[in-house]
Amino acid sequence: MINLIKRESIRLSNLNLHRVGRSWHSLLLWLGLFISMIALASCALPQPTTPSPWHTLEHHDKVHSLAFSPDGTILALGLMTGTVQLWNVNDGTLLSTLEGHGKSVSSVAVSPDGKTIASGSLDGTVRLWQVSDKKVLRTLEGHSAPIASVAFSPDGKTIASASWDTTVRLWEVSSGKVLQTFSHAPYQVSDVAFAPNGNILASTAGTVLYLWQVADGKLLGTAKEHTAEVWEVAFAPDGQTLATASFDNTVRLWQTKNGVLLKTFQAIANKIAFTSDGSIMVTAGSNVQFWGVNSGALIQTFSEGYQPIDLTADGKTLATVASGENGEVVKVWHMPTNLVGSTR
Q1: Stretch (H or E) spanning 122
Q2: pTM to 2 decimals?
Q3: Which pLDDT tens digit goes with each residue over 123-133?
């Protein structure tokens, strides 16, 4: 009887082990199938590709700033020689050279209607140029130090100038009259940008981001999380967020309405641009990097260019500066289709 009980116990134990073995075998089969499905799905997703070259704009001067016209057909360059060059983006030819500044052109901007170019210079003046005849419409004088940045309001009626004299000035384009002055003392102002609705002005000075109400000049708030000087500010196309680039090797994303910090990107950059839908942020420093705004992930690093950069309004064309045999060259690129209109 005892032997019978032992034999039955052994039989049942073997049966249970067999069942457990089958269970583990089934589990491994399902796990392998699951991993294979993930791999296939990953392969099916569009992978980032590098921008494809279009034109190389040959010249022999240092480029401090560049800006596309709203329709993307003209690229304006601000040069160390104190001149502004206008290039035809479609065929890569030089259209004209605008002369008049006494020192380097630090910043250029194109009006929303594409009819006027604004140039800010280390000579402390802002010049407005008429694109049609390449003549100076007016020279805006009043700053007591070099101009760091210029920006048109969305309606094109106002231009903002940021200066090392610690102020930002708003000028009426039609008359050249000063409308408002925003003090950032004791800090030199490095950049300025209008929100897409034109109601808010963002500026950077020292380690601080400032948000101003355009209508009455009221300071809405400041953000002080950067630990080194901030050099660039840019609004996302919907105006709900804006980004800053700092010498602390970060780019930070903020909520416009209250200045709350949303994300921090570890990026060595001093120039920022957004794709047309705001889903991709492009940063430039020693190279160009593409970031998913929602995920905060680095999508791609593009080493064919460095700052300054600009994107066309539709996000399909990128301009970068690169080293050439006889100095700097500007390269114009088609953006990868899987980065334009991305939802990353």
Answers
A1: none
A2: 0.83
A3: 999 999 999 99
